[in-house]
Write a structure and sequence with these properties.
Blueprint (H helix, E strand, L loop, with lengths): L6 H13 L4 H7 L3 H4 L1 E4 L2 E4 L7 H13 L2 H9 L25 H19 L12 E5 L6 H9 L9 E5 L4 H10 L5 E6 L6 H18 L5 H4 E5 L2 H7 L6 E3 L16 H7 L1 H20 L6 H15 L4 E7 L6 H13 L17 E4 L10 H6 L6 E6 L10 H17 L3 H6 L7 H4 L7 E6 L4 H21 L11 H14 L10 H11 L2
Helix pairs in contact: 1-4, 7-12, 7-15, 12-13, 13-20, 14-20, 15-20
The protein binds 6-O-phosphono-beta-D-fructofuranose (F6P).
Length: 527
């Protein structure tokens, strides 16, 4: 039976009628202990969801829905290595990458090779074609082979190893790679070609450009072995590209691209922060895995986040969700979560091939605070749209400077309070605002938010944070009865682009394309 027709869903729909008219001001007035009732602490993390538009009954009904969806059963299937990614006939085992002593032997073997490689770069044992040590690492990858390490390298900038600079190239636009190559020295640069499939157009195009650039200086093919490594599950294609087998770090088809930071795909991060810190990231993620598997539903952080998103999306009518890290170091988290959440759950066909029957993944977007306050928060406060948000803050600054951190945190708390409680006409009047300006100064409030506080930003807490969202995504997939682990929706555009490339190169005609596309081709190809 479709979950939308279940008694648990129907009970939530009825309950939502009663909640929708209530303002967060009323919910707080009705329960003096609201913060205590709607917050969770786990291994140093604090999750405050008291500013969500829920009451105790909402939570109870949402948990009933999770039972109806058999969340526990799906967790067990994932852990048992069942092929829960049924449309690709694959298991989903990213947790095995961070299982510490329980990791599968193939995972351990690759981790050991990665460690040895990192150490040889850091110690200077690894040398380039002219005998110099490596100073610059360029990760060439896109999507899951880029966003995770790129975000994490920025997040952990405070732990950056000296003498190594890590760069990221993703876009097929030459404007991404060309300026970088212009400032790098081929004798001291190492390229990591990161691609699970090793068929991705952007990555292979950039990798070929990088190879030509290197060979133009080195003058001999054998230099490839000193300047290129690959991270991939396709060992045949890495070999065809000319990367020797000993320079290939493997991962497996049971690691989804957007869940792959913990695999060899994390190499650029490990080079940036050092192997010990990379292992701390895995340990933090593993701690969250354990919590997700063992904690009872009412104390379960990932499940709580998932249920709140489902509530806001399907019962309060939100179509977007904002991620607002009050941490410059986490400024790439929204982009990372866009892929994680939207590529996983941006689907309308359920596991059985039927329509889900409900709205699924909201549009994820966001920006680091306080920057966003000076651009889009106007709409947040007075634009009349429902926008649930996740505020993320650090108790301790990662770059402590006098006068900065308390103001940053004050802004974070100020915004979530202003969004929740707004400002009434009476409050505006009592501040002495003239009647003519009154309508402009009213803040309706009632914007729901969750605040997550990390004790500090380090490899361990970053691991916890990312695994928290990974498991949230898993829970939502179960609740909507989706396969969160395929991504068929990316294929059509790729196929059309490969048919259009020869047309734009003047190698074939535009027959078969629609009138708009033909018109655009003509304009682009005009002399
Ligand atoms: O096009 C989407 C996608 O397949 C993502 O799922 C993936 O993370 C990205 O492309 C890169 O894929 P690959 O690692 O195989 O190059």
């Amino acid at each position: 039976m479709n979950i939308v027709n279940s008694p648990a869903w129907q009970a939530l729909a009825t309950h939502a009628e009663a909640i929708r008219p209530q303002h967060l001001r009323e919910l707080f007035a009705a329960d003096g202990e609201r913060f205590a009732h709607f917050s969770l602490r786990q291994d140093g993390l604090l999750l405050d969801f008291s500013k969500q538009r829920i009451n105790a009954e909402t939570l109870a009904l949402l948990h009933k829905l999770a039972e109806t969806a058999d969340l526990k059963g799906w967790q067990e299937k994932m852990l048992a290595g069942e092929t829960i990614n049924h449309t690709e006939n694959r298991a989903v085992r990213h947790m095995a990458l961070r299982a510490d002593k329980q990791e599968p032997p193939e995972v351990r073997a690759v981790l050991e090779r990665l460690q040895a490689f990192c150490e040889s770069i850091h110690s200077g044992d690894w040398r380039g074609f002219a005998g110099e040590r490596i100073t610059d690492i360029v990760n060439i990858g896109i999507g899951g082979s880029d966003l995770g390490p790129r975000m994490a390298v920025r997040a952990l900038a405070a732990q950056q190893q000296p003498d190594i600079k890590v760069h990221f190239i993703a876009n097929i636009d030459g404007a991404d790679i060309a300026p970088l190559l212009a400032r790098l020295n081929p004798r001291t640069t190492l390229f990591i070609v990161a691609s699970k499939t090793f068929t991705t157009l952007e990555t292979l195009t950039n990798a070929r450009t990088a190879r030509a650039w290197l060979l133009a200086s080195a003058g001999r093919e054998s230099a490839i072995a000193q300047h290129f490594v690959a991270l991939s599950s396709n060992l045949e294609l890495t070999q065809q590209f000319g990367i020797p087998a000993e320079n290939v770090f493997e991962f497996w088809d049971w690691v989804g691209g957007r869940f792959s930071l913990w695999s060899a795909i994390g190499l650029s991060l490990a080079l940036a922060i050092g192997w010990r810190q990379f292992k701390r990231l895995l340990t933090g993620a593993r701690a969250m895995d354990k919590h997700f598997i063992d904690a009872p539903p009412a104390e379960n952080l990932p499940l709580t986040l998932a249920l709140l998103t489902l509530w806001n999306t399907d019962f309060l009518g939100a179509s977007t969700a904002a991620v607002l890290p009050y941490s410059q170091s986490l400024s790439l988290l929204p982009a990372y979560l866009q892929q994680l959440e939207m590529e996983s759950n941006g689907k309308q066909t359920d596991r059985d091939g039927n329509p889900v029957g409900a709205a699924t993944c909201p549009v994820i977007w966001g920006e680091a605070g306080t920057n966003g306050q000076h651009s889009f928060y106007q709409l947040f406060h007075q634009g009349g749209r429902l926008i649930p948000s996740d505020f993320i803050a650090l108790r301790q600054a990662d770059f402590p400077l006098p006068g900065h951190h308390a103001s940053l945190l004050a802004n974070c708390l100020a915004q979530s309070a202003a969004l929740a409680f707004g400002q009434t006409a009476d409050e505006v009047r009592s501040a002495g605002v003239p009647e003519t300006l009154l309508p402009y100064k009213i803040f309706p409030g009632n914007q729901p938010s969750t605040t997550l506080i990390l004790p500090a930003l380090d490899a361990y807490t970053l691991g916890q944070l990312l695994a928290l969202y990974e498991h949230k995504v898993f829970c939502l997939g179960v609740l909507w009865n989706l396969n969160s682990f395929d991504q068929w929706g990316v294929e059509l555009g790729k196929q059309l682009a490969s048919r259009l490339t020869p047309v734009l190169n003047g190698e074939s005609d535009d027959a078969g394309f629609d009138a708009s596309t033909r018109g655009l081709i003509a304009a682009l190809n005009a002399e």
